[in-house]
Write a structure and sequence with these properties.
Helix content: over 70%
Number of domains: 1
Radius of gyration: 23 Å
Structural class: mainly alpha
CATH architecture: Orthogonal Bundle
């Protein structure tokens, strides 16, 4: 039985960590309603002294913010759907099929997780240039899928918990391999897919470096690229930047709240040993 002192210290630590995590978010929300001069006032104020919606008004008037949001939504959604297809099929193959070289191939998949994406930027850029994919959406989406090793690993670990007898029963009933994948595996791994969807969408939504390298046309910019243009050598629009940052957080919060149950189940039930 835990002592009262240990329990109290645990709660104090959790409250401290919660405050540390939520303080930056609170500052973004507060700063988005402040005039730019008040953001850098000294001493700093956590609550806006003169609340205003001018930052949001100027953001929509001076920037094609809706276009940036649509572009980011399209890229993040496309990336997430392709990631789920690759991860579930790859995880199914590694978990339930025996074929020559399976161990070596899975080791390569795990090793790919240890290669920083920045290390392959130059080769990927050269490849896209030869394909003629610079300044295209497929040039942004497809190369980034090379980092799907974690998704394959997560799905494999989860699919290992699906009874093999259930798959054999489906084969006896005349189901095709794709039918087994669609009717047996997919319903069984929905919690893991929920967790992977959040990870994949969040990573693609916030990605800045790779879209900045590939995209040239400002009409194709994602939301992070558009917001980055608000602060530079000749422009310091921190109020608009905070307002845009708040808008960029909302879709992620909505996605997490909508898939919270699947996310929690996915991260707690996916650690199945072979």
């Amino acid at each position: 039985m835990r002592s009262p002192l240990r329990t109290a210290l645990t709660y104090v630590l959790l409250v401290f960590l919660t405050v540390m995590v939520l303080t930056p978010l609170f500052w973004v929300v507060s700063a988005s309603f402040k005039p730019t001069g008040e953001i850098f006032s000294y001493p700093p104020t956590f609550l806006p002294q003169d609340p205003t919606l001018d930052n949001f008004t100027r953001l929509f008037q001076e920037m094609p913010i809706i276009q940036y949001i649509v572009n980011s939504t399209f890229l993040a959604t496309s990336h997430t759907l392709l990631l789920l297809i690759i991860a579930t099929m790859g995880g199914f193959a590694f978990a339930k099929y025996s074929f020559k070289g399976r161990g070596i191939l899975f080791a390569i998949v795990l090793a790919s997780m240890m290669i920083p994406f920045h290390l392959v930027l130059v080769p990927l850029f050269t490849l896209l240039y030869k394909f003629g994919w610079l300044d295209t959406y497929q040039g942004v989406i497809l190369p980034y899928l090379a980092s799907s090793g974690f998704g394959v690993f997560l799905m494999r670990q989860f699919i290992l918990g699906v009874p093999t007898d259930l798959i054999d029963a489906a084969r006896i009933d005349g189901s095709s391999e794709f039918g087994i994948y669609w009717r047996v595996i997919i319903p069984a791994v929905k919690p893991a897919m929920g967790a992977l969807s959040i990870f994949g969408f969040l990573g693609a939504w916030n990605e800045f470096l790779w879209p900045m390298i590939v995209l040239r046309d400002a009409d194709k910019y994602t939301l992070p690229l558009g917001l980055a243009s608000l602060v530079g050598v000749y422009r310091q629009e921190y109020g608009m930047l905070m307002a845009g940052t708040l808008l960029s957080i909302l879709p992620i919060m909505v996605l997490f709240l909508a898939m919270q149950r699947e996310f929690v189940q996915g991260i707690t039930l996916g650690a199945v040993k072979e």
